[in-house]
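Question (not urgent): is this output format expected?
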Amino acid sequence: MAALTIRNIPDDLYQDLKAHAAKHQRSLNKEVVMMLERTMGRKSADAMEWLQDVDTLRDSLNVTPLTDRMINQAKNEGRP
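Got this back:
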């Protein structure tokens, strides 16, 4: 396999890449290769990884998940 060296990566981007790799339990190198493959259309996104990203986003929003009771109450509000 070929090797690639990337120079002058901004510090904040490097830290973001490291954090993203750690979240997916990959090395920094494997994470960058995965991102490049996706960007180039060579690999489709992994469903479990996508769900993990959704869970992470949901957790970061700090909102109370809607329950069936809450949804039904909202639908019935104002109805006779």
